[in-house]
Known about the structure:
Elements (H helix, E strand, L loop, with lengths): L1 H42 L6 H28 L6 H31 L11 H27 L1
Helix pairs in contact: 1-2, 1-4, 2-3, 3-4
Amino acid sequence: MNAQVDAGADLLHSKALPHLIAKLLRERQQVLVLFHRLVEHQSRQDGKAVPPLVQEFCEMLMDYVALGHFEVYERIAECADGGADCQRQQRVASECHGRLSATTQAAVTFNDRYDSAERCRDLTRLSQDLSILGEQLAERIELEDRLIGAASL
Length: 153
């Protein structure tokens, strides 16, 4: 019976992970498009357009970060079949965990600063914060690609 449960869990894992990865890649693309639009509006100092766009970006950013960190990463890290592929996935997940967590925290910090109209009244640090977040997103993408590569082999 236990072998049947493990086999069922592996089958569920193999079916769910590709779907989650595809969803992550779609959300990543949406975040990057919004990030670019936000940087563009902010650099033109289009003050009226920035606060609603920042809030939309924050919402999408949190969805994307949560999906990557709490769904995709967890599925890869929890691989349970004990085979060589599973061990490789767990090793890569372990190697990426600290830096992935740091990028998640950077996104949460940005969100906490700009996620509401009230918080968007003072945008004097937005350019600097976007620069910092952009670097963190670039690192996160590299880490996600590494995790996805480990899960796809």
